[in-house]
Each structure stands twice: as structure tokens, then as C-alpha cells.
Model the fold of this input.
Amino acid sequence: MLATMRGETVDRPAFNFYEIHGCQDIHSTDPFCIFPHPSWHPLIELARDRTDRLSVCKFPARHENPDDVETKISFDENGSRIIESTRRIGSRTFRQSSKQDLDVNTVWTTEHWLKSDDDLRAWLDAPPSVTFGRLDTESFLQREHEIGDSGLAVIDVADPICFIGSLFDMETYMFVAFTDPALFRRALDRIAESLLPAVEAVAAALPGRLWRIIGPEYASSPYLPPHLFREFVIPYLHPIVESIQRHGGWARVHSHGRLHDILDDICSTGCAGLDPIEPPPQGDVELAYVREKYGRDLVLFGNLEASDIELLPTPRFAEKVCRALDEGTRGEGRGFVLQPSASPYGRVLSPLAMRNYEAMVEIAGG
Done:
């Protein structure tokens, strides 16, 4: 992985299972953790022993909520965990609710903090909703030690549009961004005020690491047009990338979906990598096109769909693995890392998914 990020020659392309990196806690007593189920154990062992692991870790500058946020946890009749938070701002009460089912490794937001542009104005008139506290690098360094020379621990950070976009449901988010871009920029600026110094502090404390920056897809097509991507993403993404790479790190931009109309903008930030480069119909560019046009500057990560791992018969999935390896390494380029766009999230991993992961190792691992 290090040789790939440096743009050096490697004996084979690096590959991994994305979120499945071999560090999952198969002995967890948390009823909402799916990995103690026996169906996951062979895959976790395979990831640990045979892949070039990338383990994404939380941003090491503690994310702090305002003191006036109250949170209540309850459980419904099906055992799902319900998290409800409230915050008073003047005469307004803001609420957010989320739900997690026992057998699904994801959290759904069922009610968002903000429901209108007026809510956003009131939110901005209050003390910041997101701040970053002291550095805490211990857990990252522990994960790095655990990974050893089998891969890399990765620093994860959300850009400003990820913070602001997630305050709304998608319909309201797009309405506010389209109809009042000045207000939306004011919100992005508020996040950037505390985020950018935190990124600088982490990059200085943990130099030379691989980062993943999430959020740009909020402003990609079909959600917002390219000119708003340039307005809402690039002015904030560029200084994040610059800070990371000034300290010897590598900034990898994470953006699902359609990339064609924003690839030049992403490259303008000087970032070192891009994922997951989803093939059509989930995305709108082939990996071969991205390799030819941008591969000299970017390490490309992708381009297998998680749904294919779960649904495709193994011979057909193997064809997709071979195609990705061919397109990702064709011609001249800085480097390629074969990996899925996501991972299965049900409590029971199907035998088909396991066979497809094994096929990926057999093909990519030689």
C-alpha cells in the first residue's frame, strides 16, 4: 500500500475488502454488532491474512456537540435502538431521531435537525453546532500497530458539506442549496472555521498518513449541478487536501455516484487518490476512462460494487474483478487499489458473498 501511494512500481495491484479489514470484534457483547455471527468469521480472517488492509479510523480531534443538546435512548417493540436528541434555540426546539435495527449494521436518520431555510438561519444564529476539541491520537496509533505491515490505518474526515447536508433530509437540503446559496455558504463557512484548524493539527500530529475525505458526493449530480459543486465543495476541500499533504500525508477523496462532470474539479485540489469510482449504472464513467485521463495524478480505488458481491454468481463476479484489474492498471498511471464500494451490512453473511470474496483473493492475490 505504501508503495502504491508513493507511485512506486509494485509486483501486483493492492486489494482489500473496504470496511472488512480483519480488525472487527468478533467477541463483542453489543447486541447491535453483527460480527460475532459465525458467518462473518471466515471473511474477517481472510481479510486479516490475505488482503492489503485499509482500516478507516475516526477523526482524531474529538467532535463535540453543544452543551444544550439533550439525548435520550430507547428501544421499540422490535428491539431497535432509537436515539432522540433535542436542542433549544430561542423559542425553537430542534429534534433529530435515528434508528438502528438489531440485524442491520447501519443507522437510519428518521428525523433531521433542520426542516427549512428558516431553521438553518436560527441554527446559525446560535453557538456552533459542531466544534472540535483536543487531539486524541491513541486509538489511531493502536489501530496502526494492530495493522502492522499488512496495510494502513486511515484517518477519516468529513468536509463541511457533509456536516451541513446531513442536517437536512435530501429534498430540503437540495431546496436550500439551490434557492439560497449565500445562506448555504454561510453554513459551510461556520463549519470550516473549526474544521480546518483541526485538520491542520491532526495532519501535523500524524504526518505521512493516508486520509479519506467524505462528503463531496452531496454536491454531485443528480443532487446539484457542477457549478454548485465548485462553489460548495472545492473552496473547502482544497485547504483540507493542502493541509494533509503539506505534512506528507495522502488525501483520498471519497465520492460515490456520478463523477464525469466534476473530475477536473476534484483533481484541481491536488488530492492523491479517489474512490470508489463506481461503474455504470451506479456511476457515469468507466474505470478505464478515469485511468487514462487522470491516472497519472491519482491513485484510483475501486471499482467493484458491493451489490455485485452479494448478488452475482461467482463466475460473473470474477469477470468484473478481472475487468477492474485490467482497466485500473492499463497504460501509465500512479497506482490502483482494487476494492468494493461498500460491504454487506446484514447480520448473516451469505455463502455466495463469501465465495465472491474468496474469488477476489484468488484473482487479485495471485
